[in-house]
Amino acid sequence: MRNGKANAVERPVAIVVGADDVGSAVAVALHRSGFATVICDDIDPPWARRGMSFTNAWYFGNAELDGEAAVFCASAKSISPVLRRDGLIAATSWSWHGIAPALAPVAIVRSGSTSRRGGRALKARAPEGAVTIGIGRDYVSGVDVDVVIPSDPEGPTGAIITGQTTAFEAGTTDLVGAVDQGPLVYAPKAGRFATNRRIGDLVRRRELVGAIGNVDVVAPISGALRGLSSRGAAIFEGAMVLEVDPRGDPVLCFGIDERAGRIAQRVVSALTQHLRSAMPEPESGVAANAESAA
């Protein structure tokens, strides 16, 4: 047991806030480096790259990414039993600060996609001894978090940029959404997303893919659906809900994005260095595993 808590786990715990493609890649990297990893997100997360993330765990109870499995934990008490199984990552809609006291995490990492929605002050709310890491330019090192990991400052990490076209269109001829979005479609308003399509489906330019309320979502270009928010997802204004890969290969819509993977390895390296400086004798196996993964 750690810190005398009955529900604690043997391995050091790391909490990742955000189940988007970057947060999920970080969770995989931490898991493979020897950390018992928990991903926290909203009840109906809107993240579109579900073939490249663990987001489906919130909708279907479990998800797989690059050979690793995440299991959804509806109750806080069910998280520790999942973490005791070395092969599983825990996914939950509980807030990170709600589960942190029981899990005594050594690290809390927030994905850049979630920083605009949930605030940036990880450092002020983190339990004593936990390293806080923020991904993206919205954080100030030493103020918001202990460590800042840079990411792509221009749009979503790993976006495939092609020609420009209209992304949203109403049921009439009135244009109500953003224009010049290339293969990416952003929500012009908040609401629930409706769709019958799946990740990897092939679509044609301007083909109807889904809707947010009375606003139709159409494919901006022809190709394969690399990103598609889940049916029933709670979309916030400005969220990416659709992404089309013009290469048209469904296989390329699954797995860890190359750039998200690089960010994840930077997180593991930074965390390992920080833990070594703070704790001269880190727990056996964690530092060595983190170095080999980086």
Outline the fold blueprint.
Layout: E1 13-17, H1 21-32, E2 36-40, H2 57-60, E3 62-65, E4 68-73, H3 79-83, E5 88-92, H4 96-103, E6 107-110, H5 112-118, H6 122-125, E7 131-135, E8 147-149, E9 168-170, E10 184-186, E11 191-195, E12 202-203, E13 208-212, E14 215-218, E15 223-228, E16 234-235, E17 240-245, H7 258-278, H8 286-293
Parallel strand pairs: 1-2, 1-6, 2-5, 4-5, 6-7, 7-8
Antiparallel strand pairs: 3-4, 9-14, 10-17, 11-13, 11-16, 12-15, 13-14, 15-17
Helix pairs in contact: 1-7, 7-8
Please describe what this structure looks like.
It is a single chain. With 294 residues, the protein is an alpha/beta fold. It folds into 2 domains: 13-154 and 257-293, 3-Layer(aba) Sandwich (Rossmann fold), CATH 3.40.50; 168-253, RNA polymerase II/Efflux pump adaptor protein, barrel-sandwich hybrid domain (OB fold (Dihydrolipoamide Acetyltransferase, E2P), Beta Barrel), CATH 2.40.50. It contains 8 helices and 17 strands. The chain has helices at residues 21-32, 57-60, 79-83, 96-103, 112-118, 122-125, 258-278, 286-293; strands at residues 13-17, 36-40, 62-65, 68-73, 88-92, 107-110, 131-135, 147-149, 168-170, 184-186, 191-195, 202-203, 208-212, 215-218, 223-228, 234-235, 240-245. The strands form 3 sheets. An 8-stranded mixed beta sheet has the order 3-4-5-2-1-6-7-8, sandwiched between helices. A 5-stranded antiparallel beta sheet has the order 9-14-13-11-16, with no helix packed on it. It has a 4-stranded antiparallel beta sheet with strand order 10-17-15-12, with no helix packed on it. Helix 1 links the parallel strand 1 and strand 2. Helix 1 packs across helix 7 and helix 7 (258-278) runs antiparallel to helix 8. The longest helix has 21 residues, at 258-278. The radius of gyration is 19 Å and the shape is globular. The two termini are 28 Å apart. The relative contact order is 0.16.
